[in-house]
TrEMBL record, chain A:
It comes from Poseidonocella sedimentorum. This is tRNA uridine 5-carboxymethylaminomethyl modification enzyme MnmG. Homodimer. Heterotetramer of two MnmE and two MnmG subunits. NAD-binding protein involved in the addition of a carboxymethylaminomethyl (cmnm) group at the wobble position (U34) of certain tRNAs, forming tRNA-cmnm(5)s(2)U34. Its cofactor is FAD. One of its GO terms (cellular component) is cytosol. SMART domains: GIDA_assoc_3 (SM01228). It is found in: Cytoplasm.
TrEMBL record, chain B:
Belongs to the TRAFAC class TrmE-Era-EngA-EngB-Septin-like GTPase superfamily. TrmE GTPase family. It is an enzyme of class 3 (hydrolase). It comes from Poseidonocella sedimentorum. The keyword DNA-binding does not apply. Mg(2+) binds at S227, T248. Homodimer. Heterotetramer of two MnmE and two MnmG subunits. Binds 1 potassium ion per subunit. It holds the Pfam family MnmE_helical. One of its GO terms (cellular component) is cytoplasm. This is tRNA modification GTPase MnmE.
Length: 620, 428
């Protein structure tokens, strides 16, 4: 009987990334999914990336993950968000052809020699003497392995709501995992319920595109993967329409028939992605809301109206959708629905996404209270790497707030938990100016190589890029010029006695790379994309010094480890609320403890003094 | 956690001495010394005995229960007769009890902070309160101790976070329809915050003076009667609080309580042209000190003006009134003529500036506010440059919040605490 290193349950974005990462680490891996056809299915909007999210995809790619490459292959419209703003807040985003994405993902997964793709419904986790040994299927078959990664998405106790109708389902047309949910609930009593919504899907042939504003992609596309150099398919535009007073009236009149407002849903939905019912109620002074009409692919007419997710009954959806400009005669292919699902409080997880109370069990994706393909994939990557590391007795692979958005997300989840579905934003990253989408490879590829998850092909590409960057920077930093010398080149800087290198000069807002060629003609051989990257690196140089200091301070606090068995109960002077938070989160370091919500300097000092005392005792 | 004790009143002979015990074993330790304990918060007379039954003293005992005491722990206060022998015997007795030890410097306050009884600004204010010598210093410390500064910081932080959230919305939700006029709104909010901070920073200079004392320099040519005047003031008109030898032999400082305000009179070296390099250096130093002082009393040979006026911190007054004859206002350190008028004028002048003081008096707080203001102004510049620079504006605002957090001790806890507790002495 085959014994796997890693068993991944679920074939969505977290599952695929987890399985792919585990195999890159050299782990013999099984991926168990209900339908092999559904590998990498995009069950919500047909787009990947965006602000914060695009950063995550770049980081996954820098670690040789799969999402970025597949998204590039299936991308039908590429846009770099915040193009006019600084590089730190620019996020790549693309409209994706769903079926192409699925097809490329499947090809990618099937090409992995040490991955078995198994079809079946996982009914339970299997234990021997309370040690996790694998998973059992509904047909009573068993799969044995050293570690299990659960990526059950919305399938765990999933319930679909349309108006007052509801039924158990993982997503439209799929069964939900009721038995597994019951077992997980027994194992981990601290579970909650979240909800998310989708809009009705429209027939593009029945939309009057002529009257609508159109949003094309960028002239020069920005890809997700550092390995992609060209677009693979035909490109399309999206349409833009708006809701109006009539739309809002219909929704208001039928609020009591909405699953959410009718009181059928107990789960919490995301504030930043409200249903149209929510928008109309909570922002009643706004007379119109923007709706993007996003084509779901090249070979389909299905259109995804982004901005009107709903749980109203079908007939109400029909009547309000037709009030939007250009949608007078639109046909709804599939009604919108809300889905409620179980999640596991992520503060029960360590930073490797392993459950603290159940060795060998890893959780990734929506089960941890997040939303979004990119958030799921990034967690899949982390859980896959660490499940493999555990099975193969390698070092854990952990990320910090100061090195990646992945680190920010892991820290937020395991420290602060979630009260609504967690989505990445750039504002969550205090080291935003360092953690850019454009330098994800400079931050992470070497780290990934050391961890063992970066393959030769990627390493070669990165090493070449890095050597070009390094040698160009070396030329630039090799020589410095006084303000007087620079004046000779027509560049005026403050006469403060400081000598500046050409790299320093790039941090001035009005100086660009070509301006430097007169000073250092040898720079003319530097390639265009290398110049661009150097400009981005230099732009924040003055701020990065400060962030570097903050990062070091953070690192110091992170290095002050708190033992897992720290006895908070016996610490006098902690408020009851803080004590219970500390017991729940069990922070791994003083730095993590500091980020627990409501933490006070007093409590931190108390913990610090206990740590120092026990250090002193150990030394004595 | 250990139970700690220390003498909380000044050491030495006194009418009463207070010994404070705090910690989980405080009540048990107190029982060992005085038998039964009274109900909490009730004073009771008890006999304090050694373990062998020998009487140490008779005095008052008060118990404060956990959560309702200065430190937040169980606390017992012994009020004994202020005899060094009694204190020493009682301390020996307490330290013989297991789990009970003498407190380290500042340990009571540190526990109060740990147990959330005080925040960082309040701890600092407590240090100021203990050090307070004048009424003005006292009222300033009390204001901070009651949490006024912390309340202000919370309010400023809130305003800053609102502005910050608008900037972040421009970044993270740029794809969505944002309300028009956001840039103007942000700039307006930032300008308002910068103005508030500016006012506080200006006020802080006065508050800092209340804390550390106003400086009043007496200047004039050699032999104009400066030292005589100072001696007179020191001897008759105001209580000397301390006399510090000048940093050079040419500046003598005398600290006083002037009708409730802390002031330091500086007697400076006489100003005259000199060839002696050492003396010339002294004159230079004296000039610099005088320029930095809050008020300069300039003694001149004669005066035409009938009344005493302090303008921009300087008053010209006639010297040696007892010897010279001139029409205007003058004073004499020998007879004391005019001195009282001078002191009242000084007090009036200082009192007016005290009324404009802000909530911050501490240099650490002031520096944070100055930096926060700089960040806010820089952020406004970035925002006005257009959306290309919102990332930098956001970074500046993040830094400004960071600075405010430092004031109330949200970050950099260890550094700040170390400094604060180093200034505390035992048992307070």
């Amino acid at each position: 009987m085959k014994h796997y290193d890693v068993i991944v349950v679920g074939g969505g974005h977290a599952g695929c990334e987890a399985a792919h990462a585990a195999t890159r680490m050299g782990a013999i891996t099984a991926l168990v999914t209900m339908k092999r056809d559904d590998l990498g299915v995009m069950s919500c909007n047909p787009a990947i990336g965006g602000l914060g999210k695009g950063h995550l995809v770049r980081e996954i790619d820098a670690l040789d993950g799969v999402m970025g490459r597949v998204a590039d292959l299936a991308g039908i419209q590429f846009r770099l968000l915040n193009r006019r703003k600084g590089p730190a807040v620019q996020g790549p985003r693309a409209q994706i052809d769903r079926s192409l994405y699925k097809a490329h993902m499947r090809t990618e997964m099937e090409s992995l020699p040490i991955l078995d793709l198994l079809e079946g419904e996982v009914a339970e986790l299997l234990f021997e003497n309370s040690k996790l040994v694998g998973v059992g299927l509904t047909d009573n078959a068993a799969i044995y392995g050293k570690t299990v990664v659960l990526t059950t998405g919305t399938f765990l106790g999933g319930t679909v709501h349309i108006g007052d109708k509801r039924y158990p389902a993982g997503r439209m047309g799929s069964k939900s995992s009721i038995r597994l949910a019951a077992q997980i609930r027994d194992l981990f009593p601290r579970m909650g319920r979240l909800k998310t919504g989708t809009p009705p899907r429209l027939d593009g042939k029945t939309i009057n595109w002529e009257v609508l504003e159109s949003q094309p992609g960028d002239d020069v596309p920005t890809y997700f993967s550092f390995l992609t150099n060209s677009t693979s398919t035909e490109q399309v535009s999206c349409g833009i329409t708006h809701t109006n007073g009539e739309t809002h009236d219909i929704i208001r009149e039928n609020l009591d028939r909405s699953a959410m407002y009718g009181g059928h849903i107990e789960g919490t939905g995301p504030r930043y992605c409200p249903s149209i019912e929510d928008k109309v109620v909570r922002f009643s002074d706004k007379s119109s809301h923007q709706v993007f009409l996003e084509p779901e692919g090249l070979s389909t007419d299905v259109v995804y109206p982004n901005g009107i997710s709903t749980s109203l009954p079908e007939d109400v959806q029909e009547s309000y959708v037709s009030t939007l400009k250009g949608l007078d005669n639109v046909r709804i292919i599939q009604p919108g629905y809300a889905i409620e699902y179980d999640y596991c409080d992520p503060t029960t997880l360590s930073r490797t996404l392993e459950h603290r109370d159940q060795e060998g069990l890893f959780l990734a994706g929506q089960i941890n209270g997040t939303t979004g393909y990119e958030e799921a994939a990034a967690q899949g990557l982390v859980s896959g790497l660490n499940a493999a590391a555990k099975a193969l007795s390698k070092d854990t692979v952990t990320f910090l707030r100061s090195d990646s958005y992945i680190g920010v997300m892991l820290d937020d989840l395991t420290t602060r938990s979630v009260t609504e579905p967690y989505r990445m934003f750039t504002s969550r990253a205090e080291f935003r100016l360092r953690l850019r989408a454009d330098n994800a490879d400079q931050r992470l590829t070497e780290f990934g190589k050391l961890a063992g998850c970066v393959g030769e092909a990627r390493w070669t590409v990165f090493a070449e890029k890095k050597s070009k960057l390094d040698s160009a920077k070396a030329i630039m930093e090799n020589k410095t010029y006084s303000s007087k010398e620079l004046e000779g080149f027509g560049i005026s800087v403050k006469n403060d006695g400081k000598k500046r290198s050409t790299f320093d000069l790039l941090s001035f807002p009005n100086i660009e790379f070509p301006d430097l060629l007169e000073i250092q003609p040898e720079l003319s051989s530097v390639e265009f994309h290398v110049r661009e990257q150097i400009e981005r690196d230099a732009m924040y140089a003055n701020y990065l010094v400060r962030q570097e200091r903050d990062a070091e301070a953070l690192q110091r606090d992170e290095q002050r480890a708190i033992p897992v068995d720290m006895d908070y109960e016996s610490l006098s002077g902690l408020s009851g609320e803080l004590r219970s938070k500390l017991v729940r989160v069990r922070p791994a370091s003083l730095g993590q403890a500091a980020r627990i919500e409501g933490m006070t300097p007093a409590a931190l000092t108390l913990i610090l003094s206990v740590l120092k005392r026990s250090e002193a005792e150990r030394r004595a | 956690m250990d139970t700690i004790f220390a003498l909380s009143t000044a050491p030495g002979k006194a009418g009463v001495a207070v010994i404070r015990v705090s910690g989980p074993e405080a009540f048990r330790a107190a029982e060992a010394v005085c038998g039964s304990l009274p109900a909490t918060h009730k004073a009771a007379l008890r006999r304090f005995r050694k373990r062998d039954g020998t009487l140490i003293d008779e005095g008052i005992v008060i118990c404060f229960p956990e959560g309702n005491s200065f430190t937040g722990e169980n606390v017992v206060e012994f009020q004994t007769h202020g005899s060094q022998a009694v204190v020493s015997l009682l301390e020996t007795e307490l330290s013989s009890i297991s789990g009970v030890r003498h407190a380290l410097a500042g340990e009571f306050t540190r526990r109060a902070l740990l147990n959330d009884r005080l925040d960082l600004t309040q701890v600092e204010a407590l240090a100021d309160l203990i050090e307070a010598e004048t009424v003005a210093q006292h009222s300033q410390a009390i204001e901070t101790l009651s949490g006024r500064l912390a309340d202000s910081v919370v309010k400023w932080r809130e305003g800053l976070l609102t502005a910050m959230s608008l900037v972040e919305a421009m970044i993270d939700f740029s794809d969505e329809e944002l309300p028009p006029g956001m840039t103007e709104d942000i700039v307006r909010r930032l300008a308002e915050l910068a103005r508030t901070f500016e006012r506080e920073i200006e006020g802080s200079q006065v508050a800092e003076r209340v804390r550390s004392g106003f400086e009043i320099a007496i200047i004039g040519r050699p032999n104009s009667g400066k030292s005589t005047l100072l001696n007179h003031i020191a001897g008759r008109e105001a209580a000397i609080t301390s006399e510090i030898a000048g940093t050079t032999r040419d500046v003598i400082e005398v600290r006083m309580d002037l009708f409730g305000l802390p002031v330091t009179f500086l007697d400076t070296a006489g100003m005259r042209e000199t060839d002696d390099p050492i003396e010339a250096k002294g004159v230079d130093l004296a000039k610099q000190r005088a320029e930095r002082a809050d008020i300069r009393i300039h003694l001149v040979e004669s005066s035409d003006s009938g009344d005493l006026r302090i303008e921009d911190g300087t008053a010209f007054v006639g010297q040696k009134r007892d010897l010279a004859s001139y029409p205007g206002f003058g004073l004499s350190g020998v007879t004391g003529e005019g001195v009282s008028d001078l002191l009242h004028a000084i007090h009036e002048y200082l009192k007016n500036s005290v009324n404009s003081k802000g909530s911050i008096s501490n240099e650490r707080h002031r520096r944070s506010l100055v930096e926060a203001k700089r960040c806010i102004l820089q952020a406004a510049v970035h925002i006005e440059l257009g959306e290309d620079y919102v990332d930098l504006a956001a970074e500046e605002l993040r830094r400004a919040v960071h600075e405010l957090d430092a004031v109330v001790g949200k970050i950099g806890v260890e550094d700040v605490l170390g400094k604060i507790f180093a200034t505390f002495c035992m048992g307070k």
